[in-house]
Amino acid sequence: MRRKTNTKIKVIILILLIGVLGVLLADRMRTDYSQEEYSAKYIGVSEVKAELGFTVYTAEEWDNYFAVYHKEYLTWEMLSQLLDKLGVSEEISVEKKSGERAISREEWNSIYEQILDYLDMEKNVMQRKVLLLGIEAAKDGTILITNEGDFFTVLPKQWFLQWQAYEIYATEGECLGIKIVSEEETEILNAYLKENTGKKLTFLYAGAVYEKEVREIDTDFSLGICDIAFCKGEVTALRMKQDGIEGELLSYDTDTIEIKDYGKIAHQGKIPVYQTYGEVSEKSISDIVLGNMKVEYITAGTEVCAILIREPAEIHDIRVLLLAEDGSNFRSDIYLKCNTPSGIKCGGEETEVEAETLIHVTDYLAEQEGKTFTMTPGEGGAVFICDENGDPVSNGYWGSMEARSYEQGYTLVNQIPFEQYLYAVVPSEMPVSFGVEALKAQAICARSYAYIQLLRADLAEYGAHINDSTSYQVYNKVAQTKESIEAVEATRGKVLTYKGEVVEAYYFSTSMGYTDTAKVWNIEETENYGYLHKFGLNEFEYDGNLSNESDFLGYIKSTPTGYDSDIKYYRWFATADITDKTAEINNILENRHSISDKNVIYYGSDGSTVAESSGKMGDVIGISVEKRSESGSILTLKLQYEKGVVRIKTEYNIRKVLGCLVKKIVYADGSESENIIMLPSAFCAVTTQEDGTLLFSGGGYGHGLGMSQNGANGMAKAGMNCEEILHAFYQDVEIEDVNE
Fold this sequence. Notes:
This protein is an alpha+beta fold. The protein is 23% helix and 31% strand. A hairpin with a 6-residue loop joins strand 32 (600-603) and strand 33. Helix 7 (418-429) crosses helix 9 and helix 8 (436-456) packs antiparallel against helix 13.
């Protein structure tokens, strides 16, 4: 009996040992791992491949490398060989463990970070702690929407849960892998709490509206700007922010914003902006109209963390950056004086100065670093820019004058009532000797164009909406006159609208008998510019389509009678020579290609394979028009090289390239222009002459879109009023009062 008992005991012990061994072996082999499920314990091959995407090997090469193992998880045997492949086996020592044992996520993280230390020399891979706000499908992967921005990932989307925090390995815009699922509190900062029922929060954040069911949390439940804390998928706290100041926004850049009467205040990156009147919605800082909108700035410590737009803008002023004599934004020194007593403010200091007192502005800015200098004339007064001797070098500027200091120099901005700004635009853009109705049409065009630019505020970093050059509208180069003031006042508030929106009412000097459409600028959304159309100014309109080369050549060599046919720019010609001009052409092309590569396209010797540049194409051996608009403007210019082709688009680029080939232009009245920078227009025929030189036969002056100013004057002389003039040049538009 005892012998049988001992045998039983041995059998039982053996069974138990086999069971324990089986459990251990199962754990070591870990064959139940699935890459479709996130494992906090083990690391899968698919994730390892993603995390090694920063190396010199391609995704296809990693696929081929790991395919021979036929495993979904990373083992110690695989790791040893992987370190050899990466060339870091000697630098990274690992504990020798069973080759078939799966590597834990924690163990891999430690090894992976050592790999990064040795191989990621530029530190492209970062560890980021993110809160998942949502998921969107994407080609070949998933977009993770987080509080730290959007990240593309090839990891399975089911690995990620909304409102859960993760520590990830990421490059710019891509999540490579998950380090851990975080159990620490994570915040989204400066959200706008739109609604709180006690059981559900509705808030705006990063351009989206979110709803989140909540449990009981400690808060006063007030609406507005707040930080929302999450932990393990649940809201744990609302931290409301109510400290703020009000004022007009004057300027902003990547580090600071400038508030009227407060100066510059720091911020951290992109500032969230929320509109609180009407339908509460998220906006951007570009929606704040500089100098024309009182807004509330929510602050935390010494920084602005959010902006609230409480009411619509009331357009009253425009801010104009006055360019230096060399055409740059910056001046090396500034002297000002006013013809009336004026007030000066810089930093927190305010003083009054007598009329004609010369002020060396840069002395103030040197003493008040980072501040804005403001000079405001007394009633009826104007500020003059002067030289160091006090002699004016400009016309007088109404409104206030502001100066700021930058690393590159000093800027000067004129803030002036919007309508008063137009007083000095109209005479700078159109001779006041033109007909009254033409001047009124010019005032409406200038107002429409300026209104659009005021809303955009391209020059916000300099505290301005626009500058005073042809890049926007020429301002105060000719002083305001009785005629210009009357034209502005007669049309006060009136703008052109198309489909209910104020338009950019483009205008130019002189036509060649027709205006053109937005196709000359090679823009994709031409439907937004439907008000710009082909309009004939000739007494007897040509019925043909001027896109045909022979038809255009025949037309441009004729001289039909029209509203601006008596202007010398109506017809012109020039001879051109491409000999020894390749280097100059290439420099122009390189510059314009860097601005927009779709408008300067390089092709190889076959004429169809896209190339990087014209550097290896040899010399330019021919020029021809490849495509022309119905109005006759060149849409595509072809440059034939010895070993390639370049196609140039947009009227500006074409005029620049052709302009560098000519020495002088002869106009219809026999007068000439030398030292040409660009052709007068892209309404031009290119003809090769017997001696190999080129003849450019063209007409018009300017881009050719919208209103011909000389044509408008001809219409006014013919008895047309400003409304008739505008409806001729711009189709399907309305003339409305922007203030109503």
